[in-house]
Amino acid sequence: MGRAFEFRKGRKMKRWAAMAKAFTRIGKDIVMAVKDGGPNPEANSRLRAVIQNAKAANMPKENIERAIKKATDKDTANYKEVLFEGYAPHGIAILIETATDNNNRTVANIRSYFNKCNGSLGTQGSVEFMFDHICNFRIPKGTIDLEELELEMIDFGVEEVFEDEDGILIYAPFESFGAIQKELENRNFEILSSGFERIPQVTKELTDEQVADVEKLLEKIEEDDDVQNVYHTMQE
Q1: 88-113 pLDDT, tens per residue?
Q2: How does pLDDT run across 15-51, given as a tens digit for each residue?
Q3: pTM recorded for the entire structure
Q4: What is the b/e burial string over 28-57, where b = at least 16 CB atoms within 10 angstroms of the residue's CB?
Q5: Crossing angle for the helix pair 177-186 and 45-56, nearest 10 degrees?
Q6: How far is CA 67 from CA 24, 39, 76, 170, in A?
Q7: In the predicted structure, residue 148 carries a pLDDT above the cut 60
Q8: Cβ(114)–Cβ(232) under 8 Å?
Q9: For residue 157, what is the enclosing H or E element?
Q10: Which of 17, 29, 176, 205 has the most CB atoms within 10 Å of its CB?
């Protein structure tokens, strides 16, 4: 097994505290996908992927349809994806993915979280290089031979295939997303969900007291409505 497997196994898979917040985040993804490629999922691969993720999160069909309709309204603000980088206490690097319609607000909020928790907001490129940007797909288990699937998908960029309790996970570099999505659809595989992650190249072990310091900052960041994902180099 490779690093993606170990990262997935070791990471604390915290569920968003409120389902409504999860739906809000997916709603932003829908708006960005529609603004980028139109409201027809068949012609918009990004929107297809977001709808699959919405279904995986048990988002009601009417919510999905309402979000798509809202996104087509010219008065609906678009969201800009902005990456923030910085350090938590004890030298832990943090990478934050946001989707915002007001960058000034988001910058001010993120900076305040770092300042209140003895961290420091960094400049662009200060920690991003410490993480590998990867894509992932989840498909049903069925009767698929994992080794055979991995061999067949290597030409499309796949680096790792493994199974967990919820299905088969496929990992590849970020730039391979489109090719893999297309190939899975051509093979009539059901894509349960897909997305992107950033895996730390090196992690740092902390004491329980130090972990609590870092967790305090992570919790503040994760609670922000503009924040989509948070990654760090703390060993878990």
Answers
A1: 999 999 999 999 999 999 999 999 99
A2: 444 455 778 889 999 999 999 999 999 999 999 999 9
A3: 0.87
A4: bbbbbbbeeeebebeebbbbbbbbbbbebe
A5: 80
A6: 10, 10, 11, 28
A7: yes
A8: no
A9: none
A10: 29
